[in-house]
Write a structure and sequence with these properties.
Keywords: Cell membrane, Membrane, Transmembrane, Transmembrane helix
Order of helices and strands: HHEEHHHHHHHHHHHH
Helix content: over 70%
Subcellular location: Cell inner membrane
Oligomer: single chain
Membrane topology: Multi-pass membrane protein
Distance between the termini: 19 Å
Organism: marine sediment metagenome
Strand order of the largest sheet: 1-2
Pfam families: Na_H_antiport_1
Shape: globular
Number of strands: 2
Number of domains: 1
CATH class: Mainly Alpha
Number of helices: 14
Length: 380
């Protein structure tokens, strides 16, 4: 197994375990005598800045739009690296996972739409099942360390990356409400600065981060999800012009913080669902069924449809050393929608009974998808 694949598996094992611990602790806190304290801390108001430049939000928002920015930056940086220097840098190498990811977004969304047609509130959750959680997928694949070809890991990672990019684009286009116009100037300035730095191949990381902070503040103040600024900054870096040691050092420092602290904190505060076992109202039940069917059935069908389409059209080939059995296993694992799904639930339904039911549906459906993927790789 290559060094890159080995590192990906190792990171996936550790981060996946940390994420599940965060989720378990959140569930325990929300369903124990600590529930009141958990709720108080969850919504603890925090204010940063002064006057009209101040941002005041509960702690959960600072985690979802502040700390999670670091995780999104890691996604953008990893995608940038794969497209410029990694497994997707060769001409046509990205077509198969891109086609698979596109199918894996369209089919689940279509299933969710079909099951919730006519309900305008429930339809707000159409994007919940479109993204794959790359951390947990790598965590599951780590259980087969040494028995899974590195090409399978590369294919699964690439498809998940394109999924995440699609989710980031959808969040940017369809989520958030514009409350004021002047923050748009900050967004425009941040984007312009990043584009200028990229075009001039500026060799220092600091200016990118500075303009990224401006972009992040503009997103938050204009009502757009601020965390996506991280992905934009990571994707804007001209890796060929930056010293490779600088990029590698930055990634080594950021990765443990993002995967072992930020994401577990996110799951702890977003995954604490109250298990009161009270029957959900029809609207919440419809949302849950839509999510479950989209993740467990729609995601694998979409991934396989996109893969077969690319193979039939001749625009992509399976990586050397992989087969359609491997593609089926990856497609089943793609139903693990977690971090992005919980993030979108918060943007869709805030703190409501529908949100609680939707989170439970994501957690349980992701568990089923992981089990099916484990079985598929076990018998391959």
């Amino acid at each position: 197994m290559t060094d890159v694949a080995t590192q990906s598996v190792r990171d996936g094992r550790r981060a996946g375990f940390a994420m599940l611990v965060g989720l378990a602790l959140g569930m325990v806190a929300a369903n124990s005598p600590l529930a009141d304290i958990y709720a108080i801390v969850h919504h603890l108001p925090l204010r940063v800045g002064a006057g009209t430049w101040a941002i005041e939000s509960p702690l959960i928002e600072w985690i979802n739009q502040g700390l999670l920015t670091v995780f999104f930056f890691l996604i953008g940086l990893h995608t940038n690296h794969e497209l410029t220097r990694g497994a997707l840098s060769e001409p046509g190498a990205a077509m198969l996972p891109a086609s698979a990811a596109l199918g894996g977004m369209i089919v689940p969304a279509a299933i969710y739409f079909g099951l919730n047609a006519g309900d305008t509130v429930a339809l707000r959750g159409w994007a919940i099942p479109i993204a794959t959680d790359i951390v947990l997928v790598l965590g599951v694949l780590s259980l087969f360390s040494g028995r899974v070809d590195p090409a399978v890991i590369a294919f699964a990672t690439a498809a998940a990356i394109f999924d995440d990019l699609g989710a980031v684009a959808i969040i940017a286009l369809f989520y958030g409400e514009l409350h004021q116009l002047w923050p748009l100037w900050m967004v425009a300035g941040g984007l312009a600065g990043l584009i200028l730095l990229n075009r001039t191949r500026w060799p220092s990381l600091v200016p990118y981060l500075a303009f990224g902070c401006i972009l992040w503040a503009g997103f938050v103040l204009s009502g757009v999800e601020g965390a996506i600024a991280g992905a934009i900054v990571g994707f804007s870096l001209p890796l060929s012009s930056l010293p490779s040691k600088t990029v590698a050092a930055a990634e080594r420092r950021i990765s443990p913080f993002a995967l072992l602290l930020v994401v577990p904190l996110f799951t702890f505060f977003n995954g604490g669902v109250v298990l009161d076992f009270v029957p959900a109202d029809p609207q919440a039940r419809s949302v849950a069924i839509g999510i479950a069917m989209a993740l467990i059935v729609g995601k694998p069908l979409g991934i396989l449809a996109g893969t077969l389409l690319a193979l039939r059209l001749g625009i992509g080939t399976l990586p050397h050393g992989t087969s359609m059995r491997d593609a089926i296993g990856v497609a089943l694992l793609a139903g693990i929608g977690f971090t992005m799904s919980l993030f979108i639930i918060g943007a869709d339904f805030d703190v409501t009974p529908i949100a609680r039911t939707a989170k439970l549906a994501v957690v349980s459906s992701s568990a089923v998808a992981a089990l099916l993927g484990l079985i598929a790789f076990k018998i391959r």
